[in-house]
Amino acid sequence: WRRIAGMRDFLIHHYMGVDLEAVWQVTQNDLPQLRQATEELLAAP
To answer: Number of folded domains in the chain?
Structure first.
């Protein structure tokens, strides 16, 4: 979760220096895994 918050902070404060290709890769490669993990956490009793 710390890395997620760190990416958010970077995007907010350094938006002029953001590598859009890197952001796209994260959305395509990492977010599906994050979504799965989050859904599992929310479904747990």
So the answer is: 1
* Residue type at position 30: D
Q: Phi and psi at residue 10, in whole multiples of 5°?
A: -60, -45
Per-residue burial over 2-34, b = 16 or more CB atoms within 10 Å of its CB, e = otherwise: eeeeeeeeeeeeeeeeeeeeeeeeeeeeeeeee
Active-site annotation, residues: 8, 13
pTM of the model: 0.57
For residue 30, name the pLDDT band (cuts at 50, 70, 90): confident
Q: Which domain holds residue 33?
A: 2-43
What backbone phi and psi angles, to 5 degrees, belong to 38?
-65, -45
